[in-house]
Write a structure and sequence with these properties.
By secondary structure, the chain is of the alpha+beta class. It has five helices and four strands; from the N terminus they run ααααββββα. The protein has a four-stranded antiparallel sheet with strand order 1-2-3-4.
């Protein structure tokens, strides 16, 4: 029996399916990110999952548009991975890494990560906007972005 080999299109479909699965988990909670009823733990999980979806789909789409950008995304991934592993992520460092990417934003159908006056995560379904540079959110956002990029880059 031959070993199955995933082609690029298969890997991309798998990436999108994983991102959508993570977003569907959030959808069932029915809560906005900043809901007063949400615990801090739930908010951090939602931030991680939304950041993951935006980063995985946004990175995949960017690389389909221009494969030469791969090095930029790999460099950003390595920087994020180091900061997350050492738990030394700050808002300024996260903003710098995202700003180094050759795209204006990372986006899925549910979430968008963009730099305005700070780095914001938008939950497009409920219209919530959250500053992910704030100390209590930055590690969850950075790890979600890193994890999403890892899937999209197939690392």
């Amino acid at each position: 029996m031959k070993n199955p080999i995933l082609k690029f299109g298969d890997a991309l479909l798998l990436c999108v399916a994983l991102a959508l699965a993570s977003v569907s988990v959030i959808s069932f909670s029915g809560c906005a990110l900043l809901s007063k009823g949400s615990s801090q733990e739930q908010k951090l999980a939602d931030i991680h999952n939304l950041a993951y979806a935006a980063a995985s789909i946004g990175t995949s789409e960017a690389l389909l548009e221009n494969a030469v950008w791969r090095l930029h995304f790999e460099t950003a991934y390595v920087q994020l991975d180091r900061l997350v592993e050492q738990k030394i992520v700050t808002g300024d460092l996260l903003r710098g890494i995202i700003a180094s990417l050759p795209v204006r934003e990372l986006r899925s159908d549910r979430a968008r990560i963009a730099i305005e006056s700070a780095t914001f995560l938008f939950d497009q379904t409920v219209g919530t906007k959250i500053d992910i540079e704030k100390a209590q959110f930055v590690l969850a956002a950075a790890s979600g972005i890193r994890d999403g990029m890892r899937v999209a880059l197939r690392l």
